[in-house]
Design brief:
The protein is built from 7 helices and no strands. Helices cover 70% and strands 0% of the residues. The protein is mainly α.
């Protein structure tokens, strides 16, 4: 019941966000994807530091360390040609959500896990774009 209410209450925000992200664009170029990974890293890295510093993990009973996104994002950036130094020099988001109680931490986790599920759809799309059409693949090489 609560999951249904939460999905309904956030549907318009999800739709608005999805319309602003061209990651499902059939003509997404490698450099545009690379820039988005820069932005994702710049957001997730400080957010995950803030999350990991929260004192409520034991009471929540969840180990977020295993779900961290930044190690994979950094690896993707290096696979795309960035050096470790360039990744560390990327701009970091300063406008992070407030995480002052377990409820806010759980809300943040809900959003992050939703993004992870959406990322699976995006990954399948990108795999098709990169390996499917020969014309699209040239833009990624």
């Amino acid at each position: 019941m609560i999951l249904k209410r939460l999905k309904e209450a956030t549907r318009s925000r999800h739709t608005a966000l999805e319309s602003r992200l061209p990651l499902l664009d059939t003509h997404l170029a490698r450099n545009a994807y690379h820039e988005f990974v820069h932005l994702f890293f710049g957001y997730y890295e400080p957010l995950e530091k803030k999350l990991m510093a929260q004192p409520c993990w034991e009471s929540i009973g969840f180990n977020y360390a295993e779900r961290r996104k930044t190690p994979r994002l950094a690896a993707d950036l290096m696979a795309l040609g960035d050096s470790a130094e360039a990744v560390q020099g990327l701009a970091r988001c300063q406008n992070l959500p407030v995480l002052s109680n377990p409820g806010q931490v759980l809300g943040c986790l809900y959003v992050i896990e939703g993004a992870t599920l959406g990322g699976q759809i995006i990954s399948r799309h990108l795999e098709t774009a990169v390996n499917g059409d020969r014309h699209d693949r040239r833009a990624w090489e």
